[in-house]
Write a structure and sequence with these properties.
523 residues, alpha/beta, Protein-Tyrosine Phosphatase, Chain A, FAD/NAD(P)-binding domain, 5-stranded mixed beta sheet, 27% helix, 24% strand, Sulphide_quinone_reductase, hydrolase activity, Sulfide:quinone oxidoreductase, sulfide:quinone oxidoreductase activity
Length: 523
């Protein structure tokens, strides 16, 4: 590798690097690479796409901002400044000799303090909803100035964790770096939002910086409140206590299921609202099917403790899941809420509907915590009495501030909190945000669509698709796929189709089967 020349404490340059140089870049302490060299400038030069893949394999963020000469255009300077602001530091940039990278840095720094920028759109949250919305906006209007406020450096395909817990997916396939999924034209602000000032069109970050906007989109998801159940947080990942609601714990679920030959397995579901209300049951059914196939199920007592009164909130799908409750011999206990865990003693405590608290010993406890709005949302003026963001359920616009929208798990609407819901919401918010920027009324409506692929056994799924009021909203004709029955086709969709649709469709602004409906023309 060529000699590295420091420019500032956080920025250095060097001539062209190759894929084989990535270990040395990491060893030198860099966290990001910027390529300022156009592809094909000379024979034998490695393409930026090859370098990007190798960089990501080594945990390095990568940005390709090619320029042809050291005379830097204003647009290139702005792109460089945005990259320098959002990329993990320190940053290593390269071109043929390092001269253009040095010039790009100088031009970017000459722009002044970017914190004073007022963005067309500020999006709080870089999860499924936030990234999909940013991508949908940029597909419609590529010259928008968009900032995404997100402190995390990793992005997860959370619907895949059920499959990880069953040993179907490797956990790594559900994780990518945030830099990899962030739309290239969006400005990634790598901080957490702290407070909202909708009256002055600003969001304050943890470091006290105020970010101003013309329109605001709130999509930070929800908070898994592990601490709300005494003893649970301390024993997660040991003593047989697990949860598919965490990336690091889903593999432990699979480990526990494979090791258990006899004993008691408890599965819990907290009060609503929760993300993917079917997920607690999915873990249970897949575990039972594994034990059934290995001839162990008769020796394992399985209990499902749900704080709610019914197996599923949409009656049309209850017969199918009830059949599997009976098939696996599951002891379904409605109105039973997990309120305490003694991991060392392997005892779980449940509050019953009459207020009594019972204790149940366990060998496996698959626990799902209560779920609430993030603290900074719950204490803000944009929240309603539930703590979630108040929105019109159709337009997803705030009832008080017409330039504020929200989507995903954080909204105070009656739809299911699923990735499928966010996939449908993102185009609606994109259309309505653009209308607000143009001084027009909202033009698109969300019908409450959500999807819950209930994995009742390995190889078959009950594909629940519904909207507001429990109205069935199937994506396919019943002759092809009847979502009220367990089918292999629905499993194929979950196993093979939905992950690429998520990574290469939803997060890229491709709205396959998710195009926004004009107001008054919903299904």
């Amino acid at each position: 590798m060529e000699k590295i020349t420091p420019v500032t404490a956080d920025f250095s340059v060097l001539p062209q690097i190759g894929p084989e140089d990535m270990p040395y870049v990491v060893a030198a302490g860099f966290r990001s690479i910027i390529s300022n060299r156009p592809d094909g400038e000379e024979p034998g030069q490695p393409d930026a796409a090859i370098l990007a893949r190798r960089a990501l394999e080594h945990g390095l963020a990568f940005e390709h901002l090619p320029v042809a000469n050291p005379d830097i255009a204003p647009a290139d300077a702005r792109a460089m400044r945005a990259a320098l602001d959002r990329l993990p530091k320190p940053v290593l940039a390269f071109c043929r000799t390092g001269a253009r990278s040095t010039a790009m840095h100088a031009a970017a720094m000459a722009l002044g303090d970017d914190k004073a920028t007022t963005y067309d759109v500020v999006i709080v949250g870089g999860g499924s909803a936030g990234i999909a919305c940013a991508a949908s906006l940029l597909k419609r209007r590529a010259d928008l100035s968009i900032a995404v406020i997100e402190p995390a450096d990793a992005h997860y395909y959370q619907p895949g964790w059920t499959m990880v817990g069953a040993g179907v997916f490797d956990p790594q396939v559900t994780r990518r770096t945030m830099a990899e999924v962030m739309p290239r034209k969006a400005h990634w602000i790598r901080q957490a939002a702290n407070t909202f000032q909708p009256g002055s069109n600003s969001v304050t970050l943890d470091d006290g910086t105020a970010i101003t906007y013309r329109t605001l989109v709130v999509a930070p998801g929800l908070k898994l409140d592990w601490e709300a159940i005494p003893g649970l947080a301390e024993t997660l990942g040991r003593n047989g206590v697990t949860s598919n609601y965490r990336y690091d714990l889903a593999p432990y679920t699979h480990e526990l299921v494979r090791k258990l030959a006899r004993g008691r397995a408890l599965f819990t579901q907290p009060p609503m609202p929760i993300k993917c209300a079917g997920a607690p049951q999915k873990a249970m059914y897949l575990s039972c099917h594994d034990w059934e196939k290995r001839g162990l199920l008769d020796g394992i007592g399985v209990e499902f403790h749900s704080a709610g009164p019914a197996l599923f909130g949409v009656a049309d799908y209850v017969p199918a899941v009830t059949a599997y409750i009976e098939r696996y011999g599951i002891d379904f206990r409605p109105g039973s809420k997990l309120v305490g865990v003694d991991g060392d003693a392997r005892i779980a405590r449940f509050e019953q509907g009459d207020g009594d608290v019972i204790e149940r010993p366990f060998d496996i406890l698959h626990a799902v915590p209560p779920q609430v709005a993030p603290d900074f949302v719950r204490s803000s003026p944009i929240a309603d009495d539930s703590g979630f963001v108040a929105v019109d359920p159709a337009t997803l616009r705030h009832p008080t501030w017409p330039n504020l929208f929200a989507l995903g798990d954080v909204i105070a609407a009656s739809n299911a909190k699923t990735a499928a819901a966010a996939r449908k919401q993102a185009p609606v918010v994109a259309v309505n945000v653009l209308a607000a920027l143009d001084g027009k009324a909202p033009a698109a409506a969300y019908d409450g669509y959500g999807s819950c692929p209930l994995t009742v056994e390995r190889g078959r799924i009950v594909l629940a698709e519904f909207g507001y009021g429990g109205k069935l909203l199937p994506s396919f004709p019943s002759w092809l796929l009847d979502g009220r029955k367990p089918t292999r086709l629905a499993w194929f969709l979950k196993d093979r189709m939905l992950p690429p649709i998520y990574w290469h469709g939803m997060l890229k602004g491709r709205e396959w089967l998710a195009g926004p409906q004009p107001i008054g023309q919903g299904r």
